[in-house]
Amino acid sequence: MSIGPESVEAVKMVDENDFGISSPDERSDNEAMKSEGQVEELRRVFSVWSLGALCLALMATWEAVTSVVAAALTNGGAPCLFYNYFVGSIAIVCSLAEIASIYPTAGGQYHWVAVLAPKNQRIVASWFTGWISIGGQIVFTSSAAFAAGLQLQAIITMNHPDTYIPQRWQGMLFYWLVLVYAATVNIWGSRVLPHTNLAAGLIAFMAILGAMAPKHDAHYVFVEVSNTSGWENNGVSWLVGTLSAVYPFLGYDAACHMAEEMPHPSRNVPIAMVSSVIVNGIMGLGWTTMILFSLGDLNELLTSPTGFPFIQLFLNATKSSAGATVMVVVISLTAVAANAAGLTSTSRTYWAFARDSAVPYSKYFVEVDTKLQVPVRAIMVVTVLEMLLGLIYLGNSTAFNAVLSMSVLGMYASYILPIIYMLLNGRKNLENGQYGPFQLGRIMGPITNLIAICWLVVATVFSTLPSVEPVTPQNMNYSTVVMAGWLLFGGVFFFGFGRREYTGPSTEVINK
């Protein structure tokens, strides 16, 4: 049996044993939700610590750097990854965290646009922001499953180089297996999900590479630029290589999409967002530096039959297929956990969008299972869309890179509009009492927003370019094609049917 947003009777309050007695801040958050027409339907199972753990697992920066290191090594070499690392991410997350502190809701970006945009732009701007956000999150979540599935297949290639010829359809089946696992965990294992999404293996891996891998000198890591991508302009090649530095920091907005499943969201959501970037960034920086010093023969890594340079690196360092297999399995399982965490966040965004009558068949997808207290139908539709995305891999040898590019394009496109509206429209209309606990201030706020917008534009543009030249149908970057198709479908639905139902999320109007 399931319930719709009107069924207040089915709402279960959080147990006092989970979080303690509600504080005034928590009660005010609940009252604000009710005053805006929202009904609490999801269990509040996330504390600030478990939400932070989920964000750590979803971003999994050190694992993500490992999986996508090839883009930087091809387009600039070791310095490209080192100097681009961490650029822009702090400004973006702080800008979004400030908005999330003002308006914590599962809708995230599209809710913020509806609050901050001028009145005559709210409906269209918020709807397309939400549609882009969902598309970006679907692709971003899929990228973790792609990494895990293709790495599991690569383990077979590494251990049976003479007898096993990897097929794309087999890689797709591995990918689908990861997606099925994530859906299972999200539907039936959600009570333990906040406590199980923890990264593992970093210290051990640092020790292994530190002790066993031959080391380059500092000149190689910090100075020696290389360009094997085919791009004639080294500057363009360098910027294309930023994909390796941008992708590992995606996903911190997951905290805001879980705002309705935790106490004190106006305080705890910004804490989880910013701290996950800082903690992931510190861990990832140490790991990135170790990898760059331990690369060995770069050409051997880039031509590895496994398709992943880091697998060849592990094999070269340990000189043991068994040892390298264990290390790859840890990386892959981290990606599996990231996919499960990503599905949690994405399904909540889709559910929130359906709650506002903004997706096809909203009344069907908005329902929440009364027993499990999770949006099962939203979880399933996201999983099916992710499975369909896997079909790209059957016809494109560089589909994994295209999925990475689509992740940056989709996620960054959903980040930029709220920040622009906050800079141009929100700050002049917000009074001090309307800000949340996390506030950047009247001086640092606009500066931070401008830095974030500049980096978002640069990273978005260069994420759409192919990673190598010359371009062929097999290595083409299809991120813009897929995004255009997603927007075309969304536009036809919205202007043909959706705008009759969608009137914007229930918000408190701050700019008349």
Automatic annotation (TrEMBL):
Name of the featured protein: Amino acid permease
Membrane-traversing stretches: 42-62, 82-103, 124-152, 172-189, 196-213, 233-250, 271-295, 322-343, 374-394, 400-424, 445-465, 477-497
Taxonomic source organism: Cudoniella acicularis
Membrane topology classification: Multi-pass membrane protein
Origin superkingdom: Eukaryota
PANTHER family associated with the record: AMINO-ACID PERMEASE BAT1 (PTHR45649), GABA PERMEASE (PTHR45649:SF14)
Subcellular location: Membrane
Lineage: Eukaryota, Fungi, Dikarya, Ascomycota, Pezizomycotina
GO molecular-function terms, A-Z: transmembrane transporter activity
A Pfam family that the UniProt record links to this protein: AA_permease_2
Keywords carried by this UniProt record: Membrane, Transmembrane, Transmembrane helix, Transport
InterPro entries: AA/rel_permease1
Cellular component terms (Gene Ontology): membrane
Signal sequence segment: none
